[in-house]
Automatic annotation (TrEMBL):
<comment type="similarity">
    <text>Belongs to the inositol monophosphatase superfamily.</text>
</comment>
<keyword id="KW-0479">Metal-binding</keyword>
<dbReference type="InterPro" id="IPR020550">
    <property type="entry name" value="Inositol_monophosphatase_CS"/>
</dbReference>
<keyword id="KW-0460">Magnesium</keyword>
<dbReference type="InterPro" id="IPR000760">
    <property type="entry name" value="Inositol_monophosphatase-like"/>
</dbReference>
<dbReference type="Pfam" id="PF00459">
    <property type="entry name" value="Inositol_P"/>
</dbReference>
<protein>
    <submittedName>
        <fullName>3'(2'),5'-bisphosphate nucleotidase CysQ</fullName>
    </submittedName>
</protein>
């Protein structure tokens, strides 16, 4: 029911932004999660608590998967599940940057049907519902129609350019750019500002779910690093990398990847 879920997700994102913006980045208490899982701040936990309470009360039959909630196998038996990153780009948030996002999605039988990526400090609200297109601040968005990868800006962290990931030991020519939030990277490809993005590391579902629908509803193609369409609410909620963009650029990147190469640990 994407038509009825999307307004709920928008309201939840607005409230999340109100909470997160009460904290002042570097002054928010932060610490490292166990096992090298990255940093977390008191803002992440405050946003997560609000979202978990609000969304589960509104949709008690839905499962729950969030970066900041201990995972439970109970979600696997649910037809629909919320997939949440309370703050995507926590390092950026903690440093006082404005480039961080709330990423909120609903998946039904593994397919995302409603999604919001919200950057409150940039006043950007990206929304999508299955079969209804994608928008930013209410205006329709579309992926870039670029065909030539060599003159296209692609969002990718430097580790993705390591020689062993590419056929012949050389990545294809493109203009590399970077943004610290995976959700924001996907949104900026969906709105056509960048031609494509890729991350070759195993990627958490909560970083990707909302952007997956945005890309598809904006006319783009998004898969894992092997070209397999993304499915969500997996028992182990990680994806085998992500490649996304307009169809021609997506194909060019996939064709250049060495599929026998292992993934990487950086973004």
């Amino acid at each position: 029911m994407p038509a009825t879920d999307l307004p709920l997700l928008v309201k939840a994102a607005e409230l999340a932004g109100d909470i997160a913006c009460r904290f002042t980045g570097p002054e928010a208490r932060s610490w490292d999660k166990p096992g090298g899982a990255g940093p977390v701040t008191e803002a992440d936990l405050a946003v997560n608590a609000m979202l978990e309470d609000m969304l589960q009360k509104a949709r008690p039959g839905y499962g729950w998967l969030s970066e900041e909630t201990e995972d439970s196998a109970a979600r696997l038996s649910r037809e629909r599940v919320f997939i949440i990153d309370p703050i995507d780009g926590t390092r950026s948030f903690a440093q006082g940057s404005r480039t961080w996002a709330h990423s909120i999605a609903v998946a039904e039988r593994g397919v995302v049907t409603a999604a919001v990526i919200y950057l409150p400090q940039r006043d950007l609200m990206y929304t999508a519902a299955k079969g209804q297109g994608a928008a930013c601040n209410g205006a329709p968005i579309r992926v870039s129609s670029a065909l030539d990868l060599s003159i296209t800006e692609v969002l990718a962290a430097k580790p993705n350019l390591q020689a062993h990931h590419w056929l012949g030991g050389t990545p294809p020519a493109f203009i590399r750019s970077y943004r610290p939030s995976l959700a924001y990277r996907l949104a900026k490809v969906a709105d056509g500002r960048f031609g494509a993005m890729l991350t070759l590391r195993p990627s958490w579902e909560w970083d990707i779910a909302a952007g997956d629908l945005l890309l598809r509803e904006a006319g783009g193609t998004i898969t894992d690093r092997t070209g397999t369409p993304l499915r969500f609410n997996n028992p182990a909620p990680r994806l085998n990398g992500v490649v996304a963009g307009g169809s021609a650029l997506h194909r060019a990147l996939l064709d250049a990847l060495d599929q026998d190469s292992p993934g990487i640990t950086g973004h």
